[in-house]
Amino acid sequence: MIKLENVSKSFFDGKSSVHALHDVSLEVGTGQIYGVVGTSGAGKSTLIRCVNRLEVPEKGRIWVDGQEITALDDASLRKARQGMGMIFQQFNLLSRRTSSENIAYPLEIAGFSKLERESRVKELLNLVGLEDKANSYPAQLSGGQKQRVGIARALANHPKILLSDEATSALDPATTESILELLVDLNQKLGLTILLITHQMEVVKKVCDHVAILENGYLLESGPIFDLIADPHSHLSKAFFPPIQEALLDPDAIQAAITFIGVAADEPILASMMREFEVDVNFLGGNIQQIGKRRVGQLQVELKGKEVAESLSFLQERGLRVEVRK
Amino acid sequence: MNLLDWLPRFWNESLITIYMVGVSTFFTVIFGLPLGVLLVLTDKDGLLPRPGLNRVLSFIVNLARSIPFIILLVLLIPFTRALVGTSIGPTATIVPLTLAAVPFFGRVVESSLREVPRGLIEAAESMGSSLWQTVSKVLISESMPGLILGVALTFISLVGYSAMAGAVGGGGLGDLAIRYGYIRNETDVMLVIVVLLLILVQGVQWIGDRLAAKLSKK
Q1: Is residue A64 included in any domain, yes or no?
Q2: Number of H helices, E strands in chain B
Q3: Which of A95, A106, A137 sits opposite B127 (nearest CB)?
Q4: Domain ranges of chain B
Q5: What CATH number labels B3-215?
Q6: Phi-psi sector, A164: left (phi>0), alpha (psi -120 to 50), beta
Q7: B137 reaches A (C-beta below 8 A)
Q8: Minimal Cα–Cα distance from A295 to chain B, Å?
Q9: A318 and A179, same structural domain?
Q10: Does any domain span residue A238?
Q11: CB neighbours of B165 closer than 8 A, spacing ≥ 6?
Q12: CB distance A95–B218 less than 8 Å?
């Protein structure tokens, strides 16, 4: 649905040029919720702005829904943008328009009649649960309500894609939760493809099925979230399960990280292993995370005994990811 | 001074002032609004970056604002005559008043439009707005309260300028104040005129403030 191919972009700030994006390629499939994470200054904003060409990439090509965005003339670009909704950290609502009028804006741009606009606005207010705020001005709304108006406005022209630029970063945790639930709901109900950028790992854990990690303009890794977590070398996995410090380790033991995803997290596989094999298990640390609807856990252990190798393959046979660190 | 004898005169000259300044303000908005929009759009970070044109426009604006009004009034006599057929009287005065106020109002518009958050413009672009739609539905619409205050400010400045219109036989309250209050030293006439001008200025500012407050939804 969205494809970036070797996209580069740099900015010139007075004296030197800063690389915002460095040869970035990624692909977002239809219906995915794709999260791009990174600290501020990593190039996330530039990346998402390249998708609807608010920023023009210097090198590389971008496709959205089969259309090469980087090759469009101005008129076709405006048309293409109407098929992509975008929501913002600061909501960016027009202060002198009510919720309804803000939501109607993209419909005016697309040339719908007043009658058509009114009925569509009604549907959208309903979709985001703001029927009673139709005639409120942004200044009269809470942050969460403003973002709901922003989402309704972004969806007005039935886009297939929603671009979310730090949409929950200005909201408190409870409101963030409810906005994220709304996004997941829209993804499922409308089959909406969502590309979101965020610096909050919580957002990634709650909604994303695919993740890319961006650092200093470089794409470090990307892929399905559970694949990345299952790979103990991935940045994502290290972010969720920070490795134990070396100094703590027993020099004679084998140290391993055992990662279990989904069902395995609920079964007493480790207990079975300890009953069946001659092995001593020393727990160094552990952590269970809720990612989307699945639970993902990682245990860091030290193993000693005659049957260490056998016990580890026992775990692997049962679908656990085992990484021996020493 | 016999107030009863002077009353029709005061009334008449007040109307002339309101006519001159009102029509000048109208034309100032017609020409100054596009000028201000152009100054913002052609800026190097604007929606239609044309740094060269921007510098030229900015220079012309500064040049026009540097010329003292009384000089402009005289300099423009041939132009005024060509435009309205005469260089004398209230209607003729509208030409230099407008020309003096357009660059001023252009700057007022420019600074109002710059107050519109960058994010709003970005949002409008992300929804596929054309340049014209972004300008009319976002830039101008969002800065409407500021623009209204700018119109009131321009009107009030022009009331001051119009006092010099006497130099070309323009008439109006300011002219009366100079001829009777200053040259003939009739302090009571001067006082009445100052009160009348105060009422005009105060009234316009009040209307401007009220309108701006009503239009602002922040």
Answers
A1: yes
A2: 11, 0
A3: A106
A4: 3-215
A5: 1.10.3720.10
A6: beta
A7: yes
A8: 37
A9: no
A10: no
A11: B20, B73, B90, B93, B97, B171, B172, B174, B175
A12: yes
Same domain, A194 and A276: no
Give per-residue pLDDT as tens, A233-280: 888 888 888 876 655 567 778 888 888 877 655 567 888 888 888 888
Q: Is the dihedral of CA B8, B10, B11, B13 positive or negative?
A: positive
Chain A residues with beta carbon closer than 8 angstroms to that of B115 = none
Of A180, A201, A230, the last residue of a domain is: A230
What is the spatial distance between Cα A318 and Cα A313, in angstroms, rounded to a whole number?
Answer: 9
Nearest residue of chain B to residue A159 (CA atoms): B127
Contact A109 B141 (CB under 8 A): no
Whether B217 has its CB under 8 Å from any CB of chain A: the answer is: yes
Distances (CA, A) of A110 to B47, B105, B120, B130, B136: 20, 33, 18, 11, 16
For chain A, say whether B128 makes contact (Cβ under 8 Å).
yes
Select the residue of B128, B138, B141 nearest A78 (Cβ to Cβ): B128
Domain boundary among A200, A230, A260: A230
State whether residue A52 sits within 8 Å of chain B by CB: yes
User: Given CB atoms, is A105 within the 8 Å cutoff of chain B?
Assistant: yes
> Which of A51, A72, A87, A90 should one mutate to test binding to chain B, selecting the residue with the greatest count of B CBs within 10 A?
A90
How do residues A291-304 score in pLDDT, each as one tens digit? 887 888 888 888 88
A182-241 pLDDT tens trace: 999 999 999 999 999 999 988 998 999 999 999 989 999 999 998 888 777 888 888 888
For residue A248, what are the domain limits? 243-324
Give the tokens for residue B133.
Answer: 């739609």
Higher-scoring residue by pLDDT: B131, A308 = B131
Number of domains in chain A: 2
ipTM: 0.88
A167 and A264 in one domain?
Answer: no
